[in-house]
Structures are given as C-alpha cells and as structure tokens.
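Subject: sequence -> structure tokens, single chain

Hey, anyone have a minute? Need the predicted structure for the following. Not urgent.
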Amino acid sequence: QSTLGGEPLIEADVKKNIDIGYKRTIEHTYWLLMPLRLKDPGMRLRYEGELKAGPVTYDMILVTFDEDNELPSKDRYKLYINRATHMIEQWSYVLEGQGANSSPIAWQWEDWLEVGGLKLSLRKTQAGGDMDIVLEGVQLFGTLPDAVFTSTAPVDLTASPAPAPASAQ
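Reply:
Had a minute. Here:
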C-alpha cells in the first residue's frame, strides 16, 4: 500500500512515488549520516591533503561514487575533517548537473549531538549563512510500535517507550 497526503495512491502511481521516496531517502541519509556512509559499497575516497586554517588543521577527503552505487552519479564531495576532533566541520560539493566548471557549494557542519553512540550534526549552514538545515527533536528509540511498519496512518510516538538518552557534544 502507498498513500500520499493520507490518500491511497492508484496502482500506476505507487511505483513512481516509491522510487521518488527511495531516492530522497538515500540522498538525505548522506546529509545526516555521511560519516557512516563513507564505508558503503560504491563510495570512493581519496585523500586530498591538509588545509591549515588558523589553529585548525583539516584533512581533506574527496568522495565520489562508483557506477554500481545505489544512486550512481558524478557528484563530487570534499570533506574537511578536523584533525584534532576527527569531526567533519565542512563539506563542499559540485553536483553532476552543475557542470565541471561550477564553483563548489560549501556547508558548515555544526551543533553535534551524540544519539545512541552516533554523533550527528544537527545544523548545516551554507557558506555565507544564506541557508540552514536544522534537525530538531532527534530521538533514538529502543523499540517502535508495529504500526510504524504496518500502518499507512501517522503514528504517535509520544506514547512509545522512553527514547534512548541523547547527550549534547
């Protein structure tokens, strides 16, 4: 079953919307979980050297994708990893559709939170401060009600067991 805005989709629209949802899920998990996704099959990593910015030294890693990656593309990401903290503090990218001569788009990764042993950047700010991507109310649950996986209706998770603890970094 598949719904859009709470309304069941006709069969012809189901596959199209599942494909859109799958692609968006994959793309968005790179924004959320890039440090974990670096070990995924189809990821190519190349050390690009170091960059000194005042007292901070960054290791720069170029990330590209093999053709057999789950969403193959010619996108190119450069990660700036703080050598002292081992945290991604910035990434820049040129997407396939932008063209090879395009200037990279840079984002700062900020407001790190440890959730269930994972460190997540809850704020990503585009260079120049023109745009922020902010995650709020991040929780990790030890268990979820079956309805999360079986119902097409929204599920109220406030009635679920207490979430696993989260601690700010």
